[in-house]
Amino acid sequence: MRLPKPDKEIPVEVQREKLREQMVSERINLYLDLKKILGEEKGIEVFKKLYDEGMKRIRKNFPGGKLPIGELMKRELVSFPVLGFELHIDHEVENGEDVYYEHLTKCPFLNMAKKMGISELPCDFICNYDVEVATRDKRGRWEIISRMGDGKKECQFRIREWKE
After folding, report:
1. 4, 56, 68, 157: least buried by Cβ within 10 Å?
2. What pLDDT, on the 0 to 100 scale, is given for residue 62?
3. CATH of residue 87
C-alpha cells in the first residue's frame, strides 16, 4: 500500500532554507568529524586538503584559473546570498590602487555554529583559511578587519590584487 502524500506541499522558500542549513552544517560537521576521527592536527590538515581540492574544481571555470579581484567581488555579490550571506562591497582607490571592502552582516556558518551549540568559531576554520589560501596562491591580498564571531557588528575584509 502506498502512503498518501502530505496534504500540503512544503513552500519553496522553506525548502531552500532547509537546503542552505544542510549545506552549511555539512561543512561544519565535516571539520568537527575529521578532528574527532583523525585527531586535531591531522583532521585540520585533511580538512584543508579537501577545501583545496574543491577550490581547484571551482577555479577550472575561471579564465587562466584566476579572476581579477573586481570580477571576483561581483561574483560574490551574486553567489554569497544564495548561501545565506548578507553583504555589500565598497570599492575605493587608495594610493592609486583598487581596494575592496567586503562587509558581511549575516553569516550562515556563524549562525549555524551557534544553533549547533559548538564552541569553535567557523571564522577560524573557514574564513581564516580562505585568507590563507588567497595569499598562498597569490590570488589577492586579503586582510580580516573584523569578525562577527569576535562580537563585531560585521565581518569586514580588505581585499587588493596580488603584488610581489
Report:
1. 4
2. 65
3. 3.30.1380
